[in-house]
Amino acid sequence: MASKTEENTHESCEKESSELWSEPLSQRKENELRLLTFEEAEKLQNDRDLVSEFKQLKLEREAQKNWDLFYKRNSTNFFKDRHWTTREFEELKACRETEQQRLIILEAGCGVGNCLFPLLEEDPSLFVYACDFSPRAVDFVKQNPSYNAETCKAFQCDLTKDDLTGNIPANSVDVSTLIFVLSAVHPDKMHLVLQNIHKVLKPGACVLFRDYGLYDHAMLRFKPGSKLGENFYVRQDGTRSFFFTKDYLQCLFKNTGFEEMSNEYVLRETVNKKEDLCVPRVFIQSKFCKPNKQC
Ligand SMILES: C[S@@+](CC[C@H](N)C(=O)[O-])C[C@H]1O[C@@H](n2cnc3c(N)ncnc32)[C@H](O)[C@@H]1O
């Protein structure tokens, strides 16, 4: 279980994960950015000093190690199962050409499988490719009692450098999820992840995306000395987090050959019952597709 200190520093999929937090008070989708209070705006404005280049290069070199250590400390206990994806998949299943068609899914950056196992439970006829660059996370997936090689293939892969076609036939995947993964990748390399996924998607297939949005509570909690660049921060455990705007994400996907289907902020308030605190969460939830015909 994550220790209190880790909870304070590793905000990750942000207490969508921790039992400390109750159900959201509200969840609404918005077109506009969250408005900051005066104090919040001032805090972000004053936080100008960036982590040294030397340390930034080290963090990049050790990104995989830092995530692997994260799973060593937390094993499978940190992130909560993500059931919103099953709602999305209902929509996708309805688009199947025939009832018998087996949907092929890629969970890119699967962690310990919090998205893939709920999906497989609901529909054992799916086939899921699941990859992550933490060898420990991949082992946890394979050790899960619900793991079955007939319905799932888990493998280790750095999405910024290892060609997915080494494990997945090109143009074969019906839908890929990318959930709280791109924020962990250096902004200069995000396009490489999308290009990699693009290759294995069927024409017309989508990426379902969910990640941190600009001005999420987690962004405002970073202490001075954590800033790596614009909207990019490092946690105490060395894992990094980027906070997306809709425009940034749209550009990134469009420049790698995707078409936008939807792209929205999800604004929530979550309550920490123990501390009697209500905090604003900002996520971004989007769907981008590989066009049917390449121009
Ligand atoms: C916040 S976790 C989310 C895990 C999972 N998608 C979920 O929703 O529970 C981010 C994951 O991205 C993985 N990751 C980060 N950079 C990666 C890369 N370059 N290639 C593959 N996986 C990466 C990490 O190992 C970690 O498991």
From TrEMBL:
Biological process (GO), any one: tRNA methylation
Location, primary (coarse class): cytoplasm
GO cellular component labels: cytoplasm; nucleus
EC number: 2.1.1.-
Methyltransferase type domain sequence ranges: 106-206
Pfam families per the UniProt record, alphabetical: Methyltransf_12
Localization per Swiss-Prot or TrEMBL: Cytoplasm; Nucleus
CDD domains named in the record: AdoMet_MTases
Alphabetical UniProt keywords: Cytoplasm, Methyltransferase, Nucleus, S-adenosyl-L-methionine, Transferase, tRNA processing
Disordered: region residues: 1-25
Annotated Basic and acidic residues bias: 1-18
Source taxon at top rank: Eukaryota
Catalysed reactions, as listed in the record: cytidine(32) in tRNA(Ser) + S-adenosyl-L-methionine = N(3)-methylcytidine(32) in tRNA(Ser) + S-adenosyl-L-homocysteine + H(+)
GO MF annotation terms: tRNA (cytidine-3-)-methyltransferase activity
Family according to the record: Belongs to the methyltransferase superfamily. METL family.
Subunit organization: Monomer. Interacts with SARS1/SerRS; interaction is mediated via tRNA(Ser) and is required for N(3)-methylcytidine methylation.
Role of this protein: S-adenosyl-L-methionine-dependent methyltransferase that mediates N(3)-methylcytidine modification of residue 32 of the tRNA anticodon loop of tRNA(Ser), including tRNA(Ser)(UGA) and tRNA(Ser)(GCU). Interaction with SARS1/SerRS is required for N(3)-methylcytidine methylation.
Matching PANTHER family: METHYLTRANSFERASE-RELATED (PTHR22809), TRNA N(3)-METHYLCYTIDINE METHYLTRANSFERASE METTL6 (PTHR22809:SF5)
Protein name, entry field: tRNA N(3)-cytidine methyltransferase
Provenance organism: Xenopus laevis
